[in-house]
Task: inverse folding
């Protein structure tokens, strides 16, 4: 897999991508949890008709590519925003999250020449709101008078499986408390022994819950270290409001 430090200041999709393994895969959840990664937001260009996501591999290992067999059924239209986390040659690993009521996320490879830099962030962009990804991840954020963010997040694994629900096999996790804004568009925190957020996050350390959040209008992007709840529970993902 290739992961990279995204150069968000560039209008083009220029990524410095050290090779971590021979096989290239689009894995946004793994990318976001990679220490040092800075995701970037792009939009589908106005002159594009439909931009289909492309899958990994293929029969001859030639996907993503120009062959129609590489195309997934899911596609985007001009103006749709995506969060890019890594690249594979002429393709970018990207995630799109739809709106209400389902907030479904779709990830795959997109042709880089069909994307352009996201427009400047609107002055009114804010951390606050009720953010969701799918049915099992939700983070509510409010702004306190002192400028700190008040977080109340819940995530689960297995809640969408009726059999697991019936058998009590649903795992859950939560994050709650107030955090300081480290940078204008990012916060990072860990939970202390009392479950209270403290500044700083090391996603390589699984001894306590560690979380990073990026404000990337229209999305909230989150990465954790898989230590914020029960087995398989994670807050990592691209959230829509």
Result:
């Amino acid at each position: 897999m290739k992961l990279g430090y995204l150069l968000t200041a560039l209008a083009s999709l220029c990524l410095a991508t050290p090779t971590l393994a021979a096989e290239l895969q689009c894995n946004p959840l793994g990318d976001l949890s990679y220490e040092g990664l800075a995701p970037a937001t792009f939009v589908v260009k106005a002159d594009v008709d439909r931009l289909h996501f492309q899958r990994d591999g293929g029969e001859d290992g030639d996907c993503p590519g120009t062959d129609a067999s590489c195309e997934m059924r899911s596609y985007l239209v001009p103006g749709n925003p995506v969060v890019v986390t890594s690249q594979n040659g002429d393709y970018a690993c990207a995630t799109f999250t739809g709106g209400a009521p389902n907030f479904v996320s779709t990830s795959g490879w997109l042709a880089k020449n069909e994307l352009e830099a996201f427009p400047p962030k609107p002055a009114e962009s804010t951390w606050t709101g009720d953010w969701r990804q799918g049915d099992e991840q939700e983070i509510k954020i409010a702004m306190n008078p002192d400028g700190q963010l008040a977080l109340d997040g819940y995530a689960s694994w297995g809640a969408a499986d009726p059999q697991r629900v019936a058998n009590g096999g649903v795992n859950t996790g939560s994050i709650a408390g107030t955090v300081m804004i480290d940078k204008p568009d990012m916060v990072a925190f860990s939970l202390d022994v009392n479950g209270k957020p403290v500044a700083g996050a090391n996603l390589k350390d699984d001894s306590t819950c560690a979380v990073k959040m990026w404000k990337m209008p229209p999305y909230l992007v989150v990465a954790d270290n898989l230590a914020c709840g029960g087995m398989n529970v994670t807050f990592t993902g691209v959230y829509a409001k």
Q: What stands out?
A: Residues 54 and 67 are 10 Å apart (CA to CA). The mean pLDDT is 86. The radius of gyration is 18 Å.
